Amino acid sequence: MMKDWYEKSIKTCNSTVKGERTQEAYTRAIRMLVEFYHKTPDLITEEDLQHYFLHRRNVDQWSPATLRICYSGIRFFFEHVLHRNWHTLKLIHAQREQQLPTVLSREEVRRLLSGARTPHNYAFLATVYACGLRLQEAQHLEIADIDSHRMMLHIHRGKGAKDRLVPLPQATLLILAKRVARRNSTPHRRTRWRREHRISARRLHYAQSQIETDKAPNALFGCGCNMLSNSKK
After folding, report:
1. DSSP 104
2. Distance from C-alpha of 68 to C-alpha of 231, rounded to nearest angstrom
3. How far apart are CA 228 and CA 69, in angstroms?
4. pLDDT (tens digit per residue) in 5-63
5. Residue 120 and residue 226 in one domain
6. Domain count of the chain?
7. What is the domain extent for residue 78?
8. Do 152 and 46 share a structural domain?
């Protein structure tokens, strides 16, 4: 029975052009709600939702970011799948945290990138940093996305399943060009960007936290990112 509700949720997300990560987050929010009450979504009342939201905020002390995902996923499901027109769904919101971003100095960036022990790892991290990409955006990049004439990088299915163009610095283009040339010179192989060895956000954040010590290179060495990797014909 629950499988039917999940399938309806995914189908509705697809029809409204929700991205893959959004679909996963929304489905997870509904699954956690169902596990909390041990009953199917159609049996959950408006009062149940109010109690659930208060419990997550006051007892479990979820962060505003986590609550926003919870609210959005549940609101989407109850409005678009169950067609509930509840007042509670219009009121719920989580205040955004006002935090200043951490801006690294040039020396800190050099130390961070120096932790990449292989050329393809270095190319991946340099592109992420120079172009301001999300990790998943960088993992989906392909050679054809590099526009060297206009010095732009074409990002596919970014946040909200939207495409966008970002400026490509000359130095970053040279790094990528060297990687492409090196891979194309290898016999019986072709260049392709793959995601087999993903770099995790948790691992990258850990590496950033090590900047104040001498552990940054070792921390980044374990990231395991792999851009412009080889693929057999």
Report:
1. P
2. 40
3. 33
4. 767 777 776 666 567 778 888 889 999 999 999 998 889 999 999 999 999 999 999 98
5. yes
6. 2
7. 2-91
8. no
